[in-house]
Amino acid sequence: MAALSGFSDVSFKESVVAGTSLSSTAIGMAAKLMQSQGLMGAYAGQLICCAAMIDDVASLILLAMISSLTDSENSDAEWGPTTGVWGVLIPLISSLIFVCLGLLSAHLMPSLYPRLRISTSHVGILLLAVVTAGFVAAAYYVRPTFLLGAFMAGICFAGIPDVVEGFDRVVPPIGTWLSSLFFASIGFEIPAGELFEPEALYYGILLTAIAIVSKVVTGVFAWDLKWLVGWAMVGRGELGCVMAEEASG
Q: In this structure, is the dihedral angle defined by the CA atoms of residues 167, 238, 135 and 176, taken in order, positive or negative?
């Protein structure tokens, strides 16, 4: 962000959008990497996945704040100011409250789920879909980003083996096609004709270098595993593209 804000042709909001988009970590890729190396149950795997989750949540909170920096006429907010200090504080405060309620739900869900006497994993997946829809709707009206709502809904059910196993068994065939459509939609947003212009290449190389270095250095906080943790945090997922598209829209 600081690197871009120093250029006169890049606005402050564009700098913040770029920094926020590159700040998220590909938690899915990190989890797959830990699983393939047999480290998911180890201290290193738990540390990396936890750090990646916190990283993504912080990025989504920043996204909610950035998205509010718009003109009132173009805002989708259902209530409250969309400009000035309160236009930023309301998404920040509501996001923090939403995260706390989501974590509380995740803590309570493993004990509440058995009381529902759900007989099959299909019903559990249906419950997950209903809760996700509720979280997304609540996030829209309370003014965190809807992506945070979907993220927290998934965390709520992460500690329920029946739902996780059922999801992994039922959803992938559908998810393969949905993922293809999703990545196609991301590809549509990439200005292919401008990618190889000198200015775009310069900014791209600069941001890539900064993004890699800024993640690798986080390994110093786990000195014995510094290189493993640092490089595992480097990966960026499709969330960054979604954040850039929503924040700049």
A: negative
CB-neighbour burial class of residue 198 (10 A; exposed 0-12, middle 13-18, buried 19+):
exposed
Q: With contact defined as beta carbons under 8 Å apart, do 143 and 48 qualify?
A: no
Residue 173 identity (one-letter amino acid): P
Alpha-carbon distances, residue 152 vs 49, 51, 53, 142, 204 (angstroms): 15, 15, 10, 14, 31
Q: What is the C-alpha end-to-end distance of the chain, expressed in Å?
A: 18
Which tokens hold the place of 51?
Answer: 């750090």
The region that residue 118 occupies, defined by phi over 0 for left and psi between -120 and 50 for alpha, beta otherwise, is beta
**Mean per-residue pLDDT, 30-38:** 73
* pLDDT value at 27 more than 60: yes
The mean predicted confidence, pLDDT, of the chain is 77
Q: Are 77 and 68 in contact (CB under 8 A)?
A: yes
Amino acid sitting at position 77 = A
